[in-house]
Design a protein that fits this description.
The complex is a heterodimer of chains A (337) and B (410). Chain A is α/β, with parallel strands linked by helices. In chain A, 35% of the residues lie in helices and 17% in strands. In chain A, the strands form 2 sheets. Chain A has a 7-stranded mixed sheet with strand order 2-1-3-4-6-5-10, with helices on both faces. In chain A, strands 7-9-8-11-12 form a 5-stranded mixed sheet, with helices on both faces. In chain A, strand 5, helix 7 and strand 6 form a beta-alpha-beta unit. The longest helix of chain A is centred in the first third of the chain and has 15 residues. Chain A is globular and about 60 Å long. With 410 residues, chain B is α/β, with parallel strands linked by helices. In chain B, the strands form 2 sheets. Chain B has a 5-stranded parallel sheet with strand order 1-2-3-7-6, with helices on both faces. In chain B, helix 6 links the parallel strand 2 and strand 3. In chain B, helix 1 packs antiparallel against helix 10, helix 1 crosses helix 11 and helix 4 crosses helix 11. The longest helix of chain B has 26 residues. Chain B starts with 73 loop residues before the first helix and ends with a helix. The chains are: A alpha/beta (337), B alpha/beta (410).
């Protein structure tokens, strides 16, 4: 099986879908001739022509708005917002339009649209290239929100997202593009070419949206994580020796409550980890759902380890980032509680 | 050293406020027939002056004059007349229904009927409008069922949109009428995207974007113009300048620009201004712009100069911000009276036939209303089920919504 980086896997998913389905078009800032600032669309314009993969003006509302029009016509656009941090001008289009076409027209007009955006920090991107705005999407009725954590998942989930009849927000943790990152920023990363999760089947395959994956089985405590934090949680478990069961949510909405509930009923403890800010973050929703479903099985308070409620700082990146030391502390404290 | 006087902020004001004498001397109105009709493949640079004039066909005597005249037969004009009269009657009945508490909200077209009614007749089946809330003439003129429209306004058991949308936010794919958002300007750029898709698929369909004067200030308007210009999308970018954005006069959105049409010039988009109360002029300009789009010559921007005679909506009282008699002073007249006079002059119409048509149309609208009300009104009779509320958020209902529907007990 070929090994790919996450960038190559994402590109391969679009390549497979553009070859299979004439309705799939790809556009965004710098994605055409150049192939995207992260190279996710490199070669697609040469292969499929410039009416299927093209550069867009620097206008996120325009990119998403035009894509909504295309989707309502019958195309399946898979567009790129260069950084999730640049999404805000398009938020009205996403919330008031893409998410609601089906509902408000009683199914006459629909919006099969994928909006890809690199998310998260760890690259010294400062406050405008590091944010994790997933909770701004999970709060919106009519959207699905996906966060893959490895090349295999990224390809299978992106193909599923492109084939989905509704709008999907596809957040790509940019710190994982070239290899898994466990938060130990002073150590070199192992590239995906040396990791089994870099093995990606060629051709068409899908992973269902709404299905989590258990990446480490354990009996002591359940860790709910997604994106980069999946690897941070694994490092924390290894370093503390806590027998954690780590769940990679993969899709935040729809959420795989079955897997979550089964695990917490087994372990009786829950630690939630995300890079986004704490207050009203997706962790708050997870904590609420977990206590509703598992209150009588819980043996300790649910813990959250997240970014601080500040803008994402530049020089203080590693003080902000919820690394393995902070996650490890939460694991130990939850076990002692 | 130069010393400067303190800076001062300029806040534009309309010419007149309540209590004053209406004054439209700032609206420069060329003679009907005076503005030339360029070739369809004209270089946009050579017609920049059309963004500052007003294309008019019907003159004050009811005659059709100049190069934009002569496109419609007597029968077509009579049909257009009936569409406008139907829309006006429909509005009048629904306004009363709102006051009777049969619905929560309504928005009328009074004075602007020619724009959407004539534009629809210039389109072909399959073309798509991205309308605002004041283009229901697109539906009336395409033969959409008035009963369905009223059922939507009443949010009753036969509401095609299952009670999910505010009254008048219609949707009909079959009639080329995109689901109305209610958020302003968002759909302008969607129309451009729809048109781009038609071009990507080598289709022959075109799109029409709609916006009001006030909403041209939104960023999405400018996004639409960038995309339309860059990709030469087959789209008609319509601006209905009815002088008022709720209580805000058009000068607040227009700023230092001479006209709204002039917004298109910086993008290299041919930009025309047209008398929005002149059915023949609206049709002729729409036809020209639609033909350009279909010939792959790219977008056209059209500003319809008109006047919002009624309130913005049933929640608005214009006497608080403009003179009550301002609409009487509006120099472009009433679209129905102007077409009526023209048809009489052509020998295709008479006062008697007009009265008879008014009575027939009123009967038809009342019959539709009776039928619609038999399916319920907002607070009485049949209405969409609470279960309908949970459907259609996604193609397939996700588990969390299924749980919530269970909790709601529906």
């Amino acid at each position: 099986m070929p090994r790919m980086t996450m960038i190559e896997a994402i590109r391969d998913a679009m390549d497979v879908m553009m070859a299979r389905d004439q309705r799939v078009v790809v556009f965004g800032e710098d994605v055409g001739y150049f192939g995207g600032v992260f190279r996710c669309t490199a070669g697609l314009q040469q292969k499929y022509g410039k009416t299927r993969c093209f550069d867009a003006p620097i206008n996120e509302a325009g990119i998403v708005g035009a894509a909504i029009g295309m989707a309502s016509y019958g195309l399946h656009p898979c567009i790129e917002i260069q950084f999730a941090d640049y999404m805000y001008p398009a938020y009205d289009q996403i919330v008031s339009e893409a998410a609601r076409l089906r509902y408000r027209s009683n199914g006459e007009f629909t919006c099969p649209l994928v909006i890809r955006m690199p998310t998260g920090g760890g690259i010294f991107g400062g406050q405008t290239h590091s944010q994790s705005p997933e909770a701004l999407f999970t709060h919106v009725s009519g959207l699905k929100t996906v966060v893959p954590s490895n090349p295999y998942d990224a390809k299978g989930l992106l193909i599923a997202a492109i084939e989905d009849p509704d709008p999907v927000i596809f957040l790509e943790p940019k710190r994982l593009y070239n290899g898994p990152f466990d938060g130990h920023h002073d150590r070199p990363i192992t590239p995906w070419s040396k990791n089994d999760l870099g093995e990606v089947p060629s051709g068409h395959f899908t992973l269902p949206l709404g299905k989590a994956s258990i990446v480490r089985e354990g009996a002591a405590v359940t860790v709910l994580a997604y994106g980069t934090m999946v690897y941070v949680a694994q490092a924390a478990a290894a370093e503390t020796g806590v027998d954690a069961e780590i769940i990679d949510l993969r899709t935040l909405l729809p959420l795989d409550m079955e897997t979550i509930t089964a695990s917490i009923k087994k372990t009786g403890r829950c630690v939630i980890v995300h890079e986004a800010t704490l207050t009203s973050g997706f962790g708050a929703e997870l904590a609420a759902l977990v206590q509703e479903a598992c209150f009588f099985q819980l043996e300790a308070p649910i813990a959250r380890v997240t970014g601080w409620d500040t803008p994402y700082p530049h020089a203080q990146e590693w003080d902000y980032f919820p690394g393995p030391a902070r996650v490890g502390r939460a694991l130990v404290e939850t076990m002692e509680a | 050293m130069t010393t400067y006087a303190p800076l001062t902020l300029h806040v534009p004001e309309p010419a007149v406020r309540p209590g004053g004498t209406p004054d439209f001397s700032n609206v420069k109105i060329p003679k009907a027939g005076a503005v030339p009709r360029p070739d369809i493949d004209v270089d946009p640079e050579s017609i920049r002056d059309l963004a500052f004039s007003i294309i008019r066909v019907l003159n004050r005597n009811g005659e059709a004059a100049g190069p934009w005249a002569g496109l419609l037969t007597d029968e077509e004009l009579v049909e257009g007349m009936r569409h406008m009269m139907t829309l006006r009657t429909f509005d009048a009945r629904m306004l009363i229904a709102q006051r009777q508490g049969k619905t929560s909200f309504y928005m009328q077209h009074l004075g602007e009927e020619a724009i959407s009614c004539a534009f629809r007749k210039a389109l072909s089946p399959g073309d798509m409008n991205f309308p605002t809330y004041r283009q229901a003439g697109l539906l009336i003129a395409d033969g959409y069922s008035m009963v369905d429209m009223m059922c939507q306004v009443y949010s009753n058991s036969r509401d095609p949109l299952k009670g999910r949308q505010l009254p008048v936010m219609y949707s009909s794919k079959e009639h080329g009428f995109f689901t109305i958002s209610g958020n302003l300007a968002t759909q302008y750029v969607q129309a451009v995207g729809w048109a781009m898709a038609s071009a990507i698929c080598n289709d022959t369909k075109v799109a029409a974007a709609w916006i009001g004067d006030g909403s041209t200030a939104e960023s999405d308007f400018h996004a639409a113009l960038v995309f339309a210009s860059t990709y030469k999308a087959p789209v008609i970018l319509n601006i209905v300048n009815n002088q008022w954005a709720i209580s805000t006069f058009q000068g607040i959105a227009r700023g230092g620009s001479g006209t709204f049409a002039a917004r298109g010039l910086g993008f290299g988009i041919p930009s025309l201004r047209v008398d929005g109360n002149d059915y023949l002029a609206v049709y002729a300009v729409a036809k020209w712009a639609i033909e350009r789009a279909r010939l792959n010559l790219g977008p056209t921007l059209v500003e319809y100069v008109t006047y919002r005679v009624g309130a913005h909506s049933t929640s608005d009282d214009p006497s608080a911000y403009r003179p009550k008699t301002e609409s009487d002073a509006w120099p472009l007249g009433d679209p129905i009276i102007r077409l009526k006079n023209h048809l009489i002059m052509r020998g295709a119409w008479s006062d008697e036939r007009h009265k008879q048509a008014e009575a027939e149309i009123l009967d038809t609208v009342i019959a539709a209303q009776k039928e619609a009300e038999s399916y319920g009104t907002l607070h009485a009779g049949g209405k969409p089920s609470a279960r309908d509320m949970f459907d259609g958020v996604y193609a397939e209902m996700p588990p969390h919504l299924r749980r919530q529907r269970q909790q709601a007990g529906v």
